[in-house]
Amino acid sequence: MSNKSNVKDLTVGNPMGLIMGFALSLFWGMLFQQLYNIIDTAIVSWTLGKEAYSGMGSTGAVNFLIMGFCMGVCNGFAIPIAQRFGAKDLKSMRRFYTHAIILCTVFAAIMTFLVSVFCRQILILMKTPDSLLDYAYNYIIVIFLGIPVTYMYNLLAATIRALGDSKHPVQFLIVGSVVNIVLDLVFIMVFHWGIFGAAFATVVSQFVTGIMCLVFILKKIDILKLSKEDWQLDRSHFLILFNMGVPMGLQYSITAIGSVILQTAINGLGEDAVTAVTTGSKVSMFFCIPFDALGSTMATYGGQNVGAKKLDHLTDGLKAAVKIGSIYSVIAFVILYFFGRNFAMIFLNASEVACLDNAHLFLIVNSVMYIPLALVNIVRFLIQGMGYSMFAILAGVMEMIGRTLVATFLVPKFGFIAICFASPVAWVMADAFLIPGFFKVRNRLQKIFDG
Asked: Which 8-state DSSP code applies to residue 270?
């Protein structure tokens, strides 16, 4: 396979076609990953019972808080790589790649130590119900010990995508998902490792996926063939990566702080509320895959086009992505309105009437606001790709404020229905910042390029 087939220039061609092609490749991988997540969760529910299922679900917010930072940092590190690739500065591109590897190694070591030590205390502070606490801890501690693996996979996959290749990371992700499902069945049903087995299967499968990315880079991407010179340390490269990656990681984590506060409020409503939100969130995550794919696409699209100084092409891409996201949002709402309860029954028995009703309500309220969610993903990641990660942090702050306000003032008064409105409120608040933010960033870059 030639090197040319492994990279793609997103600065030339019809934006709609470029974005659809790139996003569809990401979509299939994310779809398969979510199918795995559904199967993984369903296996836990069917074989280990409702408490194990709810305990696993109660870790979602803190999981996103930590793992979201890892993913955000890696995606941020890939932005200078995409920009240098778009500018055809391959020497600098390789230097950013090696410096990103070093920073990820340091971050992984520090984070693994800290979160492992304080894991149980965090769950207790979140008011995790006593009946779920051991299940939650036994699951999330294994996931946290796998943080180095998370960094490895996400950095390598983000680097491959930064070069315009969204297909191969998807293929590796599919293989990893299959490995995960098989290991779930073996660890839980054969070895009887319980909730620990589900978590361990996730870490092992992500390690397999990361190794496949590494082998692919070493054997197939010639422009990432490294020399001794590429490993020479440069303070400016570290600073640029730090300024790109850390704000992007903090954006995820700051957003997740609101989710942690919200999860604490959910935990206070009892086990049935936790179960309903866990179920609704699992189904919603499946239907939000296209938004995630569009977001990742726009980060690479923005990075390459800014590197090539093609701002008109970048704006046309934004319009195309918004059109795609809006059309899908309407379709998703209709499906969830009529069939959301049926999807919830993948995880819950028909006898769990109250949980099913609440899960369906959660899905309806969230899906009616999917267009604002589409905008959050598209505009935020585009701004990040353009090199202005600090704007993403502020958008994350807006989301955090939205969820915190709902959790603090509305949930105690209105109960579960307020939980359903928490994310939509957060999305609208983020959009109110991001949309004018994009035009400000674009105008700033236009002045720089004209000057």
From this structure: -
- Helices then strands (H, E): number in the chain? 17, 0
Contact 328, 290 (CB under 8 A): yes
CA distance 154 to 175: 15
Average confidence (pLDDT) per 10 residues, the chain, 451 residues = 60 94 86 77 85 86 88 92 92 97 97 94 90 93 97 96 89 90 92 94 95 96 95 96 89 84 92 92 93 92 92 96 98 98 92 94 98 96 87 86 95 96 96 95 94 73
Evaluate whether residue 1 is within a structural domain: no
| Residue 401 covered by a domain | yes
**Whole-number Å distance between alpha carbons of 224 and 97:** 8
Is residue 2 a part of any domain in this protein? Answer: no
In a domain, 354, yes or no: yes
Give φ, ψ of 221 to 5 degrees: -105, 95
Kindly state the tokens that stand for 116: 């492992």
| CA dihedral over 368, 372, 375, 377, signed as positive or negative | negative
Is the separation of the CB atoms in 57 and 134 below 8 Å? Answer: no
Domains held by the chain: number: 1
388 vs 2: CA distance, rounded Å: 34
Instruction: Count CB-CB contacts under 10 A for residue 8.
Output: 22
Whether the Cβ atoms of residue 43 and residue 200 lie closer than 8 Å to each other: no
Domain of residue 305: give its range: 10-450
CA gap 332, 187 in Å, rounded: 35
DSSP E strand boundaries for 227-352: none
| Model confidence, pTM | 0.76
